[in-house]
Amino acid sequence: MWRNCVRLARGLGCGAFLRPDPKVSRCGVVRGLSPAAPCSPLWNSVTWLSQARELKDYALPNSSWSQGMMDLYSRFLEMCKDGTWKRIPSYSNSVDHLPESLKLTSEKERKETRLFPRNMDTEGVGFEYAMFLNTSEKRMVCLFQPGPYLEGPPGFAHGGSTATIIDSTIGGCAIFVAGKVMTANLSINYRNPIPLGSVVLVDSRVDQVEGRKVFLSCQVRSIDGQTLHAEATALFIRVDSTKSLQQQMSSQ
Ligand SMILES: CCCCC/C=C\C/C=C\C/C=C\C/C=C\CCCC(=O)SCCNC(=O)CCNC(=O)[C@H](O)C(C)(C)COP(=O)(O)OP(=O)(O)OC[C@H]1O[C@@H](n2cnc3c(N)ncnc32)[C@H](O)[C@@H]1OP(=O)(O)O
Fold first, then answer.
1. Fewer CB atoms inside 10 Å of the end CB: C or N, the chain?
2. Closest C-alpha residue for ligand 1 atom 38
3. What's the confidence (pLDDT) of residue 95?
């Protein structure tokens, strides 16, 4: 079963968080993948992408990460050891995250599907973040360090960038629990501005699932938990009938 989980996760592009992969360099680039590399239907289905270009996992530490970001990241990695939490790898193209079963036909044909927060060319200037999933709690947390290109009020993160990271974290949580979803509603209360370069914890969870509707909530807090920066509720709608990633992983 473990082997199948690993295979599935590779198909999802998740190999990096399941076990160290010798093909993944320290900066998270997956090198030299070919059809002869570890084989499973899901793995094979993503090799056409990796042949065309290298898959870089952006949710790994880089030199722009502050000590606070590194410390928090290490704390969550520790919590991954007993399987309670899982580190979620992150790529610049959204389809690289998805198994074939969750892709629309048009996505299969499209080679470039840029995922907005992962498409800044310089490390540290925009969205630096790493996500961790707790499946039993239906919870996704995101460690977020906003860079200077996200400036809104002088010295602070633009509210739209905060909305983006909330939407991505909540969205990631909804995807793992419910499968392919779209944001239908996102309601945010901004409580305290987020200083650029600081590190905050975006903590989201699924509160309820009613048919195709997935209701979630989220809080954005400082690392010490003392400052509430924002809180949000969201409604996501499932847009197809495929099983959730969580169901697929547990049925392997
Ligand atoms: C992008 C993939 C990345 C993959 C990542 C993989 C792994 C995760 C790792 C890391 C996470 C990283 C990234 C996270 C990814 C994504 C986050 C961003 C997500 C987005 O950024 S996504 C873009 C913005 N999003 C839109 O662009 C949606 C535009 N919109 C529509 O596409 C339709 O509107 C739709 C599909 C929403 C519904 O359309 P529909 O036709 O399927 O359904 P319908 O309208 O019938 O509604 C069914 C029932 O929901 C109720 N309902 C609908 N809307 C409501 C509302 N607003 N308020 C209250 N209730 C509502 C109805 O009232 C009815 O309720 P009832 O059944 O009770 O009558």
1. N
2. 237
3. 79
Ligand 1 surroundings by CB, under 6 angstroms: 88, 94, 97-98, 131, 167-168, 171-172, 175, 182-185, 212-213, 235, 237, 239
Q: List the Cα angle 163/166/167 in 5-degree steps.
A: 80
- Asked whether residue 134 is domain-assigned, the answer is yes
Look at residue 164 and tell me if it is in a domain. Answer: yes
Domain that holds residue 246: 61-89+120-250
* Tokens matching residue 44: 């094979």
Higher-pLDDT residue of 108 and 221 is 221
> What is the complex's ipTM, to 2 decimals?
0.94
Q: How many domains does the chain have?
A: 1
> How much is the pLDDT for 48?
37
CATH number at residue 184: 3.10.129.10
